[in-house]
Write a structure and sequence with these properties.
With 273 residues, the protein is mainly alpha-helical. Among the domains are: 95 residues, MazG-like (Helix Hairpins, Orthogonal Bundle), CATH 1.10.287; 42 residues. The protein is globular.
Length: 273
Amino acid sequence: MPSESHQVPLNDTAAVGQSLQKLLDILDRLRGPDGCPWDREQTSQSLIPYLLEETYEVIESIEAQDTQGLKEELGDLLLHVLMQCKIAEEQGLFSLWDSMESITNKLINRHPHVFGDARADGAFQAKQNWEAAKVLEKGRESVLEGVPRQLPALTRARRIQEKAAYVGFDWERIEPVWEKVHEELRELSQAQREADNDAIEQELGDVLFSLVNLGRFLGVNAEGALRRTIAKFEYRFHKIEEELRLRGKTPADVNLEEMDEIWNRWKDGEPEK
Protein backbone atom coordinates (compact mmCIF):
# COMPACT_ATOMS: atom_id res chain seq x y z
CA MET A 1 0.00 0.00 0.00
CA PRO A 2 1.23 3.51 -0.66
CA SER A 3 2.48 5.30 2.42
CA GLU A 4 0.39 8.09 3.85
CA SER A 5 1.46 11.53 2.73
CA HIS A 6 2.46 13.91 5.51
CA GLN A 7 1.30 16.90 3.45
CA VAL A 8 3.91 19.19 5.00
CA PRO A 9 3.85 22.49 3.06
CA LEU A 10 7.21 23.69 1.80
CA ASN A 11 6.76 26.98 3.63
CA ASP A 12 6.75 25.11 6.95
CA THR A 13 10.46 25.75 7.32
CA ALA A 14 10.77 24.06 10.70
CA ALA A 15 9.28 20.77 9.50
CA VAL A 16 11.08 20.81 6.16
CA GLY A 17 14.36 21.72 7.82
CA GLN A 18 13.99 18.93 10.35
CA SER A 19 13.28 16.39 7.61
CA LEU A 20 16.22 17.62 5.51
CA GLN A 21 18.56 17.54 8.49
CA LYS A 22 17.54 13.96 9.25
CA LEU A 23 18.42 12.96 5.70
CA LEU A 24 21.74 14.81 5.89
CA ASP A 25 22.56 13.08 9.19
CA ILE A 26 21.94 9.71 7.53
CA LEU A 27 24.28 10.66 4.69
CA ASP A 28 26.93 11.71 7.21
CA ARG A 29 26.69 8.31 8.86
CA LEU A 30 26.76 6.41 5.57
CA ARG A 31 29.88 8.31 4.47
CA GLY A 32 31.48 8.11 7.93
CA PRO A 33 34.22 5.72 9.11
CA ASP A 34 31.67 3.23 10.46
CA GLY A 35 29.25 3.70 7.58
CA CYS A 36 28.55 1.79 4.39
CA PRO A 37 31.67 0.66 2.45
CA TRP A 38 29.90 1.24 -0.90
CA ASP A 39 28.69 4.75 0.00
CA ARG A 40 32.10 5.73 1.37
CA GLU A 41 33.93 4.90 -1.85
CA GLN A 42 31.61 6.80 -4.19
CA THR A 43 32.85 9.88 -6.04
CA SER A 44 31.07 12.51 -8.11
CA GLN A 45 32.13 10.65 -11.24
CA SER A 46 31.21 7.15 -10.05
CA LEU A 47 27.65 8.27 -9.25
CA ILE A 48 26.95 9.63 -12.76
CA PRO A 49 25.37 6.41 -14.14
CA TYR A 50 23.07 6.14 -11.13
CA LEU A 51 22.16 9.83 -11.34
CA LEU A 52 21.18 9.38 -14.99
CA GLU A 53 19.19 6.25 -14.16
CA GLU A 54 17.25 8.00 -11.41
CA THR A 55 16.55 10.97 -13.69
CA TYR A 56 15.05 8.72 -16.35
CA GLU A 57 13.04 6.85 -13.73
CA VAL A 58 11.53 10.19 -12.67
CA ILE A 59 10.63 10.88 -16.31
CA GLU A 60 9.14 7.41 -16.67
CA SER A 61 6.96 7.91 -13.59
CA ILE A 62 5.72 11.27 -14.89
CA GLU A 63 4.86 9.86 -18.31
CA ALA A 64 3.11 6.87 -16.71
CA GLN A 65 1.22 9.24 -14.37
CA ASP A 66 2.45 7.04 -11.52
CA THR A 67 2.09 9.32 -8.49
CA GLN A 68 3.46 6.81 -5.99
CA GLY A 69 6.40 6.01 -8.25
CA LEU A 70 7.08 9.71 -8.83
CA LYS A 71 7.16 10.38 -5.09
CA GLU A 72 9.73 7.63 -4.58
CA GLU A 73 11.84 8.49 -7.62
CA LEU A 74 12.00 12.18 -6.71
CA GLY A 75 13.31 11.10 -3.31
CA ASP A 76 15.97 8.99 -5.02
CA LEU A 77 16.92 11.94 -7.23
CA LEU A 78 17.08 14.25 -4.21
CA LEU A 79 19.41 11.76 -2.54
CA HIS A 80 21.80 12.08 -5.48
CA VAL A 81 21.72 15.88 -5.28
CA LEU A 82 22.55 15.74 -1.58
CA MET A 83 25.23 13.09 -2.12
CA GLN A 84 26.96 15.23 -4.75
CA CYS A 85 26.90 18.20 -2.37
CA LYS A 86 28.20 16.05 0.48
CA ILE A 87 31.15 14.83 -1.60
CA ALA A 88 31.95 18.40 -2.69
CA GLU A 89 31.80 19.58 0.91
CA GLU A 90 34.19 16.81 2.02
CA GLN A 91 36.64 18.07 -0.61
CA GLY A 92 36.26 21.67 0.56
CA LEU A 93 34.73 22.77 -2.74
CA PHE A 94 31.22 23.95 -1.80
CA SER A 95 28.29 22.95 0.39
CA LEU A 96 24.60 22.26 -0.04
CA TRP A 97 23.92 25.73 1.31
CA ASP A 98 26.17 27.25 -1.38
CA SER A 99 24.12 25.45 -4.05
CA MET A 100 20.87 26.63 -2.47
CA GLU A 101 22.11 30.22 -2.36
CA SER A 102 23.20 29.94 -6.00
CA ILE A 103 19.79 28.79 -7.25
CA THR A 104 18.03 31.38 -5.07
CA ASN A 105 20.03 34.22 -6.59
CA LYS A 106 19.61 32.73 -10.06
CA LEU A 107 15.83 32.60 -9.77
CA ILE A 108 15.70 36.23 -8.68
CA ASN A 109 18.12 37.47 -11.36
CA ARG A 110 16.43 35.54 -14.19
CA HIS A 111 12.92 36.68 -13.31
CA PRO A 112 13.25 40.47 -13.68
CA HIS A 113 9.56 40.56 -14.61
CA VAL A 114 8.76 39.27 -11.11
CA PHE A 115 11.52 40.69 -8.92
CA GLY A 116 12.38 43.75 -11.01
CA ASP A 117 10.90 46.27 -13.43
CA ALA A 118 10.94 44.19 -16.62
CA ARG A 119 7.74 43.08 -18.34
CA ALA A 120 6.57 39.65 -19.46
CA ASP A 121 3.18 39.54 -21.11
CA GLY A 122 3.33 35.78 -21.56
CA ALA A 123 5.38 32.63 -21.05
CA PHE A 124 7.44 33.23 -24.20
CA GLN A 125 8.57 36.69 -23.09
CA ALA A 126 9.27 35.37 -19.59
CA LYS A 127 11.58 32.75 -21.09
CA GLN A 128 13.21 35.45 -23.22
CA ASN A 129 14.02 37.34 -20.02
CA TRP A 130 15.48 34.17 -18.53
CA GLU A 131 17.69 33.45 -21.54
CA ALA A 132 18.89 37.06 -21.80
CA ALA A 133 19.86 37.11 -18.13
CA LYS A 134 21.59 33.75 -18.53
CA VAL A 135 23.77 34.99 -21.41
CA LEU A 136 24.85 38.00 -19.33
CA GLU A 137 25.56 35.92 -16.22
CA LYS A 138 27.64 33.36 -18.06
CA GLY A 139 29.41 35.85 -20.32
CA ARG A 140 28.51 33.72 -23.33
CA GLU A 141 29.22 34.70 -26.90
CA SER A 142 26.27 32.75 -28.34
CA VAL A 143 22.71 32.25 -27.19
CA LEU A 144 23.05 28.61 -28.28
CA GLU A 145 25.69 27.85 -25.67
CA GLY A 146 24.85 25.89 -22.55
CA VAL A 147 22.85 23.01 -24.04
CA PRO A 148 24.68 19.85 -22.88
CA ARG A 149 26.01 17.70 -25.71
CA GLN A 150 25.18 14.63 -23.60
CA LEU A 151 21.45 15.29 -23.93
CA PRO A 152 19.46 12.88 -26.11
CA ALA A 153 19.68 14.26 -29.65
CA LEU A 154 15.96 15.00 -30.05
CA THR A 155 15.88 16.88 -26.75
CA ARG A 156 19.03 18.82 -27.62
CA ALA A 157 17.60 19.71 -31.04
CA ARG A 158 14.49 21.18 -29.43
CA ARG A 159 16.50 23.18 -26.88
CA ILE A 160 18.71 24.60 -29.64
CA GLN A 161 15.61 25.57 -31.64
CA GLU A 162 14.00 27.17 -28.59
CA LYS A 163 17.07 29.24 -27.82
CA ALA A 164 17.18 30.52 -31.41
CA ALA A 165 13.46 31.27 -31.26
CA TYR A 166 13.83 33.37 -28.11
CA VAL A 167 15.95 35.87 -30.05
CA GLY A 168 13.55 35.93 -33.01
CA PHE A 169 15.12 33.32 -35.33
CA ASP A 170 11.91 31.39 -35.94
CA TRP A 171 8.95 31.12 -38.27
CA GLU A 172 5.81 32.97 -37.24
CA ARG A 173 3.42 30.39 -38.73
CA ILE A 174 3.39 26.61 -38.95
CA GLU A 175 2.91 26.44 -42.74
CA PRO A 176 6.61 27.08 -43.58
CA VAL A 177 7.54 24.45 -40.99
CA TRP A 178 5.47 21.86 -42.86
CA GLU A 179 7.07 22.98 -46.12
CA LYS A 180 10.53 22.50 -44.60
CA VAL A 181 9.65 18.95 -43.54
CA HIS A 182 8.52 18.07 -47.08
CA GLU A 183 11.61 19.75 -48.55
CA GLU A 184 13.94 17.72 -46.34
CA LEU A 185 12.10 14.49 -47.18
CA ARG A 186 12.51 15.21 -50.90
CA GLU A 187 16.23 15.84 -50.40
CA LEU A 188 16.58 12.58 -48.44
CA SER A 189 14.80 10.71 -51.22
CA GLN A 190 17.13 12.27 -53.80
CA ALA A 191 20.21 11.28 -51.77
CA GLN A 192 18.88 7.72 -51.56
CA ARG A 193 18.35 7.57 -55.32
CA GLU A 194 21.92 8.78 -55.84
CA ALA A 195 23.22 6.18 -53.32
CA ASP A 196 25.24 8.92 -51.59
CA ASN A 197 25.68 7.51 -48.09
CA ASP A 198 27.15 10.67 -46.59
CA ALA A 199 24.34 12.77 -48.05
CA ILE A 200 21.77 10.23 -46.84
CA GLU A 201 23.04 10.59 -43.26
CA GLN A 202 23.04 14.38 -43.47
CA GLU A 203 19.59 14.56 -45.04
CA LEU A 204 18.14 12.11 -42.52
CA GLY A 205 19.48 14.37 -39.77
CA ASP A 206 17.82 17.33 -41.47
CA VAL A 207 14.52 15.44 -41.61
CA LEU A 208 14.70 14.62 -37.91
CA PHE A 209 15.62 18.21 -37.03
CA SER A 210 12.70 19.55 -39.07
CA LEU A 211 10.31 17.08 -37.40
CA VAL A 212 11.48 18.20 -33.96
CA ASN A 213 10.73 21.75 -35.05
CA LEU A 214 7.30 20.73 -36.30
CA GLY A 215 6.63 19.06 -32.96
CA ARG A 216 7.60 22.30 -31.23
CA PHE A 217 5.04 24.23 -33.27
CA LEU A 218 2.42 21.56 -32.57
CA GLY A 219 3.16 21.65 -28.84
CA VAL A 220 4.48 18.08 -28.86
CA ASN A 221 7.82 17.04 -27.40
CA ALA A 222 9.54 14.83 -29.97
CA GLU A 223 11.53 12.91 -27.35
CA GLY A 224 8.40 12.01 -25.41
CA ALA A 225 6.46 11.23 -28.59
CA LEU A 226 9.17 8.84 -29.77
CA ARG A 227 9.36 7.12 -26.37
CA ARG A 228 5.59 6.63 -26.53
CA THR A 229 5.83 5.11 -30.01
CA ILE A 230 8.67 2.81 -28.94
CA ALA A 231 6.59 1.59 -25.99
CA LYS A 232 3.66 0.99 -28.35
CA PHE A 233 5.87 -0.98 -30.74
CA GLU A 234 7.23 -3.08 -27.87
CA TYR A 235 3.72 -3.81 -26.59
CA ARG A 236 2.43 -4.93 -29.99
CA PHE A 237 5.51 -7.01 -30.80
CA HIS A 238 5.29 -8.77 -27.42
CA LYS A 239 1.69 -9.64 -28.33
CA ILE A 240 2.93 -11.19 -31.57
CA GLU A 241 5.43 -13.28 -29.63
CA GLU A 242 2.83 -14.32 -27.05
CA GLU A 243 0.29 -15.42 -29.65
CA LEU A 244 2.87 -17.29 -31.69
CA ARG A 245 4.10 -19.01 -28.53
CA LEU A 246 0.59 -20.30 -27.93
CA ARG A 247 0.72 -21.75 -31.45
CA GLY A 248 4.06 -23.41 -30.68
CA LYS A 249 5.93 -21.03 -32.97
CA THR A 250 8.41 -18.14 -32.86
CA PRO A 251 8.68 -15.11 -35.17
CA ALA A 252 11.42 -16.96 -37.06
CA ASP A 253 8.90 -19.70 -37.93
CA VAL A 254 6.35 -17.49 -39.70
CA ASN A 255 6.25 -14.94 -42.50
CA LEU A 256 5.64 -11.20 -42.31
CA GLU A 257 1.99 -11.54 -43.35
CA GLU A 258 1.19 -13.76 -40.37
CA MET A 259 2.92 -11.40 -37.95
CA ASP A 260 1.16 -8.42 -39.55
CA GLU A 261 -2.21 -10.07 -39.02
CA ILE A 262 -1.56 -10.38 -35.28
CA TRP A 263 -0.05 -6.87 -35.12
CA ASN A 264 -3.10 -5.27 -36.71
CA ARG A 265 -5.45 -6.96 -34.23
CA TRP A 266 -3.50 -5.43 -31.34
CA LYS A 267 -3.09 -1.94 -32.83
CA ASP A 268 -5.72 -0.45 -30.54
CA GLY A 269 -4.50 -2.31 -27.47
CA GLU A 270 -7.24 -4.97 -27.65
CA PRO A 271 -7.83 -7.77 -30.17
CA GLU A 272 -10.76 -7.36 -32.53
CA LYS A 273 -13.89 -9.21 -31.39
